[in-house]
Amino acid sequence: MRTYDIIKKKRDGEKLSQSEIQFIVDAYVKGSVPDYQMSAFLMAIFLKGMADDETFHLTTAMLESGEQISLSEISGFTIDKHSTGGVGDKTSLVLGPVLAALGLKVAKLSGRGLGHTGGTIDKLESISGFSCDVPADKFIAIVNKIGVAIAGQTANLVPADKKMYALRDVTATVDSIPLIAASIMSKKLAIHNKGVVLDVKVGSGAFMKSLQDARELARLMVSIGRQAGRKVTAVLSNMDEPLGEMIGNSLEVLEAADTLQGKGPSDLAELVKVLASESLLLSTNRTITQAEASKKVEEVISSGKAFQKFIEMVKAQGGDPAMEKLPISKEIKPLVSEKSGYVSSIDCEEVGLSAMMLGAGRETKEAKIDFTVGMKLCKHVGDKVEKGDKIADIYVNPNHPGNEKAIERLAKAFHIKAEFVQPQKLVLDIVS
Amino acid sequence: MRTYDIIKKKRDGEKLSQSEIQFIVDAYVKGSVPDYQMSAFLMAIFLKGMADDETFHLTTAMLESGEQISLSEISGFTIDKHSTGGVGDKTSLVLGPVLAALGLKVAKLSGRGLGHTGGTIDKLESISGFSCDVPADKFIAIVNKIGVAIAGQTANLVPADKKMYALRDVTATVDSIPLIAASIMSKKLAIHNKGVVLDVKVGSGAFMKSLQDARELARLMVSIGRQAGRKVTAVLSNMDEPLGEMIGNSLEVLEAADTLQGKGPSDLAELVKVLASESLLLSTNRTITQAEASKKVEEVISSGKAFQKFIEMVKAQGGDPAMEKLPISKEIKPLVSEKSGYVSSIDCEEVGLSAMMLGAGRETKEAKIDFTVGMKLCKHVGDKVEKGDKIADIYVNPNHPGNEKAIERLAKAFHIKAEFVQPQKLVLDIVS
């Protein structure tokens, strides 16, 4: 088998066999296929596409390139959630405890990575004492006992994806539905959860700009997961503006805690309810109805059981559960609207960059996150604003350079139009 | 300007500006654009194509990546011929002296390279004493005096093409008409001849398998040359079987000398006549007719003037013009047909590989060519053969291993069918 022939075959729009896909992925990870052949191959996939079974074989080949985590020591229905990413997305912080309260098992392994704000782990580590450096046996014990734990991911999962993604990132081959699906699903399948619920974001602030593309990505990922023997559902949710009101590390933890107590923003609450209901449907093999599942979710929140799980998890991982001790800046600068009208959209990318400029995220691997900073968005798409109305509170570190520029950036992220704009529904579709 | 954006633009089928093309080619040659970005870019060009002006800008950017040779010290109409390659193609050896006899100036710079048989230089160096290591001033002096000289090319012409071609070769991006046109034309334009006549081969033994593709390549190359201010014509010639009868180094020199004396194979003689006539038409700005040009070509051959130029060139470059002294093996093995019928095609690739296995070509840069070996094809497409008829004479070095395999290979290259096959015309079209 020759790499050249595999590239040529895909270039000509032909279908690759499982062994051809396996060959090129293995050889690339081992280093015997150089980057320049892989990048030509990825561009050919980008432009010629892949059939569903080719994408499944690609996912499998990538998945098998590294370690896998069996979770076999956890009793019960293990489930993982994946979001295709967005600004202000603290859903995992809320969903984990809710699912634990419902009796499911959430053994969340998360990375730090770069970004506008920290990852789930960074957010949690803004809680005094909280540690995600949990040894494997203790991690399993917490999940078995409480139902949820969140740890840093240290295993060498899917090295093929790391290497391929780095290459795609610099060769304009990221936005390909088969490549995105294989990248996400190889990482999800490497951890042997019984169920996976996918939150596919759609809209101006998401990877997938159109509902049609998002639906296709969701369909493909669900099909890959099924072929691999997992239970999978995908929820398509709108990302035309940040989710919730808070952006920043401690601020997002606070908002998550509020939501777990039924006092969070309605969009976040709704998304958690849908994702949790879908998870419950997966775990019960759909022997209950959607309405029943939804009711159970509402119950664990209104009863305080879900918030209790959060507190238990925080304690088990060494954190101080007193939310009032969260490190949140006292220096709050209001941002006011410069014109009157209706909020038509809030540019997620710009909001995220503004948060990063305040110090809430990492621009480089070595950068230190400032847990105390961030922002609360006071207006949402569809809201009426008058000139001079406050549209955001900005939590700053007064000693940080670049606050002014960050605030200017945030101001520009709000698009205000004269005519009323009907906000999109939050949950656009469910693919299962 | 970012490489990423340039790749993305081409990936999306958009038209690149001159400055974008210039940027990526320059940066690639300098090493600041890595191979993996260039290979993704080349695959995007392969699959999305290029408009004529983009291809012209690509050619120019490549051309300007290295040295150029002005030829300003040569008086008269300087002309170069380029063939897209084929087996048994000794046209340059014949055409150069013919053009010199017509009063044109042929300052041929040629490479050695790898291949089934040696390049033009290797073929000529099979003449005892002949050297292509001619200092620049002597080379110019010979061209000015005799009208033709052939030297090894040592200048660093078009490094962009060397680097890009090596990459295309391993990433399945060779067979792209814009990329082929830019590669050929950048090398041709780097040497400032006034005229260029292109011999675009078509058929099973050529790069271009279909007449339509060959015509498109020819049209594009002629247009690039014109935009660069040169006079250019392209001749489309059939390559469903090797050109002429001889394959091998000394054997091809012998056939070239025969053809210069009007006793060569008809296909080679015809192609030389067409290429020479077209060259004359370019040099005279078409102030004479095609028939007049053709007549002048016939005259320089029948008068012996063209052969005389060949002898003068050989002498000027230190060679012994006595053709009977050419090193040709006396060990000749006949190849006979195993069946009766009509020759339907002769696989050029297989004939070439057979010649290489006999020792006539270089498999690696370091390999030494055996000038004495090769073959004479005794049957051509359309010829009737009986079982047992001789179809080729094979000139071998009896001490060379692998002769048997080479002969087997040649036997398989002859395709013989029961029904008569009408051979293709040699000259299929002229694009000017």
Which residue ranges of chain A are poorly predicted, with pLDDT under 50 across at least 5 consecutive positions?
Answer: none
Number of strands of chain A: 13
Largest sheet strand order of chain A: 1-4-5-13
The Rg value of chain A, from CA coordinates, equals 22 Å
Percent of residues in helices of chain A comes to 40-55%
Helix-strand pattern of chain A:
HHHHEHEHHEHHEHEEHHHHEEHEEEHEE
Overall average pLDDT of chain A: 94
CATH class wording of the largest domain in chain A: Alpha Beta
Going by helix content, strand content and strand pairing, the class of chain A is alpha/beta
Helical segment tally of chain A?
A: 16
Write the layout of secondary structure elements.
The structure is a homodimer of 432-residue chains.
Chain A lengths: L2 H9 L6 H13 L4 H14 L3 H12 L15 E5 L7 H11 L4 E5 L9 H6 L10 H11 L1 E5 L6 H12 L6 H13 L5 E8 L8 H17 L3 E8 L7 E3 H12 L5 H18 L6 H13 L2 H12 L15 E5 L4 E6 L1 H11 L15 E4 L6 E2 L4 E6 L7 H11 E4 L9 E5 L1
Parallel strand pairs in A: 1-4, 2-3, 4-5
Antiparallel strand pairs in A: 5-13, 6-9, 7-11, 8-10, 8-12, 9-11
Helix pairs in contact in A: 1-3, 2-4, 4-9, 4-10, 5-11, 5-12, 5-14, 9-10, 12-13, 15-16
Word description of this protein:
Two copies of one chain form a homodimer. In chain A, the strands form four sheets. Chain A has a four-stranded mixed β-sheet, with helices on both faces. In chain A, 56% of the residues are buried. The mean pLDDT of chain A is 94. In chain A, strand 4, helix 10 and strand 5 (231-238) form a beta-alpha-beta unit. Chain A is globular, with a radius of gyration of 22 Å. In chain A, helix 4 (52-63) crosses helix 9 (177-189), helix 12 crosses helix 13 and helix 15 (348-358) packs antiparallel against helix 16 (403-413). Chain A folds into three domains: 3-49, Transferase, Pyrimidine Nucleoside Phosphorylase, Chain C (Transferase, Pyrimidine Nucleoside Phosphorylase, Chain A, domain 3, Up-down Bundle), CATH 1.20.970.10; 79-323, Pyrimidine Nucleoside Phosphorylase, Chain A, domain 2 (3-Layer(aba) Sandwich), CATH 3.40.1030; 327-417, Pyrimidine nucleoside phosphorylase-like, C-terminal domain (Aldehyde Oxidoreductase, domain 3, Alpha-Beta Complex). Chain A has helices at residues 3-11, 18-30, 35-48, 52-63, 91-101, 120-125, 136-146, 159-170, 177-189, 211-227, 249-260, 266-283, 290-302, 305-316, 348-358, 403-413, and strands at residues 79-83, 106-110, 148-152, 195-202, 231-238, 246-248, 332-336, 341-346, 374-377, 384-385, 390-395, 414-417, 427-431. Chain A is 45% helix and 15% strand. By secondary structure, the first copy, chain A, is an alpha/beta fold. The first copy, chain A, starts with a helix and ends with a strand. The A-B interface holds A 3-4, 7-8, 11, 34-40, 42-44, 46-48, 167, 170-173 and B 3-4, 7-8, 11, 34-40, 42-44, 46-48, 167, 170-173.
